[in-house]
Thioredoxin domain-containing protein (Tsuneonella aeria), 248 residues
Amino acid sequence: MIELRTATLALTASLALAACNSEEAAPDGTVAESAAVAVVPPPAGQSWSEVASVTPEGGVVEGNPNAPIKLIEYASHTCNPCAEFSKAAAEPLRSKYIESGRVSFELRNQIHDPIDLTFAVLARCAGPQAFHAFAEQGWANMEGMFAQIQTNQAALEAATQAQGAARFDGVANAAGLYDFFAQRGVSRDQARACLAKEETATQIAKNSETQSTELNVTGTPTFFINGTNVGTQTWATLEPMLQRAGAR
């Protein structure tokens, strides 16, 4: 299995900031001006926000899989700027852009630490339709998660020294992730069964490592619009780029 940085006491104290490693935002000229694209009706009886699937790259895309504007975010579940983006963007991105069928939104994990990887595995336990909601709620609960981690530092340190499924089980306990997901319909037994499938974590970590290198993803959140790396952005700087790409 791919090795990750050990979540030491020093790491847990600075995790939310150090894990992000964000660069300056790319200038708002990297997306070419395109003609406005038409609204695409969803399948009968559904909304586009109810449509989700796993991509070949290991991310989870929400919305019209054939949308003319494809937004990809590389994000970490332990990253403050990712949480800030989610808080600002989740509602308008979904209601104004994803629901129109003009924009699809794919989340891909950039893994920074064992907590991040454990959450990424658990967020997939209920299938792709639940993944984005779990991610958003996890970012909204980040302060509570870090408080739990601070309380359980010794247990977290011991967990990160373990191997295989025992490591993820210990991290989930120490970070309060079993309780978090149980409150959202994923029982402890279901969560443990997910974490026991080590190949899932291995593939997520491998995807993160390979794609970060190949696509020059140096921090989180990093965004791509129709294949163009537009760097780290806030919602205030990213929305005009979507509009320039035709989502208007």
The longest strand covers residues 69-75. The CA atoms of residues 90 and 136 lie 8 Å apart. The first helix runs from residue 9 to 18. Residues 56-244 form a domain with the Glutaredoxin fold (CATH 3.40.30.10).
